[in-house]
Design a protein that fits this description.
Length: about 130
């Protein structure tokens, strides 16, 4: 079993930065191959933000955050991070961490992930 806990959200001004963390526990070394971040606002579907292989070999970003965000991982701590810079009001959402036990995934699709955290709120004011 794998459990995910997000942290690092909060209220920031436009142009500011946040670093989100996702701590994984359980059978992580043999169960997780990919981890990702998604976000969701009321009335809209969950949106892909970024993904990374557990080894850190490859990454993928949504066009909306490319150049402003960096996803990284620390395998020793079983933790994945999302560094977000130059934040905009449209980045406001609940951000969710996700993990997949599949060797090959379509990283931008939520239904390719098996485990989810409870989410952390990010609010960007103008």
């Amino acid at each position: 079993q794998v459990q995910l806990v997000e942290s690092g959200g909060g209220l920031v001004q436009a142009g500011g930065s946040l670093r989100l963390s996702c701590a994984a526990s359980g059978r992580t070394f043999i169960s997780i191959y990919h981890m990702g971040w998604f976000r969701q606002v009321p009335g809209k579907e969950r949106e892909f933000v970024a993904a990374i292989t557990w080894s850190g070999y490859s990454t993928l970003y949504a066009e909306s955050v490319t150049g402003r965000s960096t996803i990284s991982g620390d395998n020793a701590k079983n933790t994945v991070y999302l560094q977000m810079n130059s934040l905009k009001p449209e980045d406001t959402a609940v951000y969710y961490c996700a993990a997949s036990g599949r060797r090959y995934v379509r990283s931008g699709r939520a239904d390719n992930y098996d485990f989810w955290g409870q989410g952390t709120q990010v609010t960007v004011s103008s």
